[in-house]
Amino acid sequence: MNNIIIREIQEADLEKGFLESLDNLKKASNLEKDNAKIILKKILDNSNHIIHVAELDGKIVGSTTLLIEQKFIHKGGFVGHIEDVVIREGFERKQIGGKIVESLLDVAKKYGCYKTILDCNDDVKEFYEKIGFKHETNGMRFNH
């Protein structure tokens, strides 16, 4: 797995299996390509919304999202929010997820984030602890 390339998403990745890789998280491959292009353009136009992908042999095998939030507290500091960590089925447990998350932690640090947070289920808690995350709060959710 040394030839994994971690980089920011590009429009061409929609044809390289990006949406299919998201299926391991929640079905996304049924999204119409034109709609996916519109969504991606909005994301790329927002410098505080970053998606990194893992590419292997021309195919997208994973991705992760970082959202940067500016606060009034901490002297107007920034918080990074990691979302949608996903590895394509068949590529799990090959250290790809850790590489993508760490790449976005580097981005958050460059932005000057004073913390980066994420929510996760208990079954992947150990994965994030190995990267350096610590349990601090309870995640709550309200469905609309």
Short characterization:
By secondary structure, the protein is an alpha+beta fold. The protein is globular. It has 5 helices and 5 strands, in the order E-H-H-E-E-H-E-H-E-H.
What key attributes describe this structure?
5-stranded mixed beta sheet; 5 helices; 5 strands; 31% helix; 144 residues
Unreliable spans are none
Pattern of helices and strands? EHHEEHEHEH
- Main β-sheet, spatial strand arrangement: 1-2-3-4-5
Instruction: Report the count of strand segments.
Output: 5
Q: What composes the largest sheet?
A: 5 strands, mixed
* Helix vs. strand class: alpha+beta
Number of helices: 5
Task: Estimate percent helicity.
Answer: 25-40%
CATH class: Alpha Beta
Reported by name, the CATH topology is: Aminopeptidase
Radius of gyration: 15 Å
Beta strand %? 25-35%
Distance between the termini: 40 Å
Shape: globular
Give the overall pLDDT as a whole number.
95
Integer tally of domains: 1
CATH 2nd-level architecture:
3-Layer(aba) Sandwich
Classified in CATH, the superfamily is Gcn5-related N-acetyltransferase (GNAT)
Please give a structural write-up.
With 144 residues, the chain is an alpha+beta fold. It has a single domain (5-131), classed as Gcn5-related N-acetyltransferase (GNAT) (Aminopeptidase, 3-Layer(aba) Sandwich), CATH 3.40.630. 31% of the residues lie in helices and 27% in strands. The chain has 5 helices and 5 strands. The protein has helices spanning 18-22, 33-44, 73-76, 96-111, 125-131; strands at residues 5-8, 49-56, 59-70, 78-87, 113-117. A 5-stranded mixed β-sheet has the order 1-2-3-4-5. A hairpin with a 2-residue loop joins strand 2 (49-56) and strand 3 (59-70). The model has no long low-confidence stretch (mean pLDDT 95).
